Amino acid sequence: MHTNEKATQLSISTDVLEKIATIATKEVAGVASISKRAVDLRGTVKNKSAFKGVKAESVNGAIVMNVFVTLKQGAKVNEVAEAVQKNVKERIQSMTGAAVTRVNVTVADIEFEEEKKSDK
Fold first, then answer.
1. Which of 72, 84, 101, 102 is 20 to 30 Å from 117 by CA-CA measure?
2. Interval 46-71: pLDDT, tens
């Protein structure tokens, strides 16, 4: 007897992973905002996500996240970066079941109180 079972495949857009990571990053105390990432101008034309602050890459089913953040004045860089890594990884893995192998956090800027007041 031959049983023909179809395997189902779930595909999750990198945009969805990036949104989950953005929300998870903003939940961390000490994070002021998502930052625009540094741009390699040679890749700008080809890369529509050149100005995103969160970038997801999927390699052989494993996910690598790159997150660019602006921290609040007085935040402890190492502690906040580690908390971002942990929260992003936990949120993506719990919501999607996909393995996150690495979360790279780049502190791109620090928001000072004077800057915040002058922007208003």
1. 84
2. 455 556 899 999 877 789 999 999 99
